[in-house]
Amino acid sequence: MTALSLKDVSIMLGDTPVLESINLHVKQGEFVSILGPSGAGKSTIFRLLTGAVPLQTGTISCASHEDSFAFMPQRDALMPWRRIIDNLTLGLEVQGVARKDARTQVMPLLADFGLADFTTHFPAQLSGGMRQRAALLRTIVQGRSIQLLDEPFGALDALTRTQMQTWFEDRWRAARWTTLLVTHDVREAVALSDRIYVLSQRPARVIAEIIVPIPRPRLGRPPSTQAHDIETQLLEILLHQTGERS
Amino acid sequence: MQRPVPRQTGRELARGVPAVLSVVSAFVIWEIYVRLSGISPLMLPAPTRVLDQMVQNRVLLWDNTLPTLTATFAGFALSLTVAFGLSIMLDFMPHVRRALFPIFVVSQTLPLVAIAPLVVLWFGFDLTPKVLLVALVTFFPMLVALVDGYASTDPEIEDLMRSMGATRGQIFRAARFPSAMPYFFAGLRISITYAVVAAIFAEYVGARAGLGIVILNAKNSFRPDIVLAAVVISSLLTLALFAATALLQKTVLRWRDVEGDR
Asked: Can you name the CATH fold of A1-68+158-246?
């Protein structure tokens, strides 16, 4: 079942065309990545979906009604003045859930996210990886049908990023959240996705759609030749893109 | 996590030592100068004489400290209410902000020497003119701090809340207001140091009692020692209020003092 589809979506920001006739869809329980060069307008797609940018041309349709998206921004955007537990319940609070009930909903998930012992800590007391896990849990807890992840591991150091990706793959295999991931990291896209859309430079068009049929788990073991081939193919598309314009 | 606490307190005390030393040595130099030069106490009384006068006139000073404190607190309470109320209104109505802000700036350009007698003329010798003057002097730093503080909110946090479907009011309460708190306390610390001085000045211009009246009467009867005694009390009041805001800030902004593990 298709959870989300964009048809012929174009966006102008001021006089700059940012998105040009974007077509993409995400199926229920599918992990889809949007891969593109920096500044291509990947994040604009998310801003469109969360309502920060109004739709100009084209159509967006979702299987469920409004409020189907939970958004995880690039930086964790944890509120430094709130303890972790209160950051986690923010989305539920906004929905009007009482604080106590919100905490009850979050509690059973804490262990899987490695946050059980840190609920009363402030974000500044946590490591980058833990903050990112908290930001992800804050997203999941909202109970929306589609998770939008905007370069969730981009700000982490290489080692932490690999650890987080491996951990995330585990969690995803257990929960199968319908996920749309924006990234410019080819390896990350191949490691996590069922399908990958490659965007061109600005104005962004979909220039390739690649299915990743590699069995999971893919991380925490030597990369398969199949993964290597797809990575090479994606890199070539991307490099060709950037070369074309410079 | 528990161990470093006493060491930190010790270090904070140690950091206070130079300040105490410099203040004490200033008074010692003053005392020595007065004693050696034989200058008349009508010109410059020694610190010990001021202290002596404080003890001798303690009833008079205490009775006149109370009205000053009342004016300070009432004025500051008014100022705090107005600053918060206005800041919230201005945050929700940017057009009004552009219209009203120049007026607030102008209100800060009025020379107190000119405006204070007028306010006393309009509102009499009671508490009202003092409260108004204290509020006039102290509300602006807090208002500016709050307005700037709201604007300092991390746009990613606001985007996040919007993606959650938060209303403007929810975003204000959960993101903009807490973001403004460090700014607010910076403004509060500036304001509070003006408050006592403003109250005393308002009394000086026209009142029935208060430290301002003590200063006025002492000056007119050539008693610089009593003037300085009142000044010492005024300084102590301001220092106490400053310490109180620092304490409040430490409690409210506890999240800023936590040590990162990274």
From this structure: Rossmann fold (3.40.50)
Which residues from A are below 8 Å from B262, CB to CB? 127-128
Strands A146-150 and A57-62, how do they pair? unpaired
Number of Cβ pairs closer than 8 Å across A and B? Answer: 69
Nearest-CA distance B249 → chain A (Å): 13
Q: Does A79 touch chain B (CB under 8 A)?
A: yes
A-chain residues within 8 Å CB-CB of B256? Answer: 80
Can you list the residues of chain B whose pLDDT is less than 70?
A: 1-9, 259-262
Predicted local confidence at residue A242, as pLDDT: 66
pLDDT score for B262: 42
Question: CB-based contacts of A161: which residues, under 8 Å, 6+ apart?
Answer: A153, A188
Domains in chain B (CATH in brackets) are: 47-253 (1.10.3720.10)
Torsion, Cα A139 A145 A148 A152, to 10 degrees, reads 40
What is residue A222's predicted lDDT score, i.e. its pLDDT? 83
3-class DSSP assignment, residue A228: helix
Q: What residues of chain B have any CB closer than 8 angstroms to a CB in chain A? A: 154, 156-157, 159-166, 170, 174-175, 178, 181, 253, 255-256, 258-262
A131 close to B (CB below 8 A): no
Domain boundaries, chain A: 1-68+158-246, 73-143
The residues with which A34 forms a beta bridge, in sequence order, are A182, A197
What's the confidence (pLDDT) of residue A38? 80
d(CA B211, CA B229): 10
Q: What type of residue sits at position B53?
A: Q
Which of the given ranges, A184-188, A200-204, B211-215, has the highest pLDDT on average?
B211-215
A160 in B contact zone (CB under 8 Å): no
pLDDT-derived band at A50, boundaries 50, 70, 90? confident
What residues contact B127, with CB distance under 8 A and at least 6 apart? B67, B70, B71, B74
DSSP 8-state secondary structure symbol assigned to residue A75: S
- For B195, what's the count of Cα atoms within 13 Å in the CB-facing half-sphere? 33
Contacts of A91 in chain B (CB under 8 A): 164
The answer to whether A67 faces chain B, any CB pair under 8 Å, is yes
Secondary structure of B17-82 in HEC code, one letter for each residue: HHHHHHHHHHHHHHHHHHHHHCCCCCCCCCHHHHHHHHHHCHHHHHHHHHHHHHHHHHHHHHHHHH
Q: What is the pLDDT of residues A97-125, one digit of tens each?
A: 999 999 999 999 999 889 999 999 999 99
- What is residue A1's predicted lDDT score, i.e. its pLDDT? 81
- Give the 3-state secondary structure of residue A194: coil
A42 close to B (CB below 8 A) = no
